[in-house]
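In response to reviewer comment 3 from the previous cycle, which asked for concrete evidence that the modeling workflow produces usable outputs, we include below a single protein chain processed end to end. The sequence was submitted unchanged, and the resulting structure tokens are shown without manual editing.
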Amino acid sequence: MARKRRNIKQEEARRYSYPPDGLVSIAASNPDYGKKFAEIFRLQQQWVKNHGRS
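The workflow returned the following structure tokens.
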């Protein structure tokens, strides 16, 4: 019996997975936007690393 319950839980997790975030789905469908977004994100990470979060 326990085995059936575990299989049902795994199936539910697969069936009701959450969709990706809006920015991720936009970047996946628009490669130019994805490249620009990744470039800006890296620049921001570098700035925070050098200057802190104030």
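Residues 20-54 form one domain. We consider this sufficient to address the reviewer's concern, and the full set will be provided in the supplementary archive.
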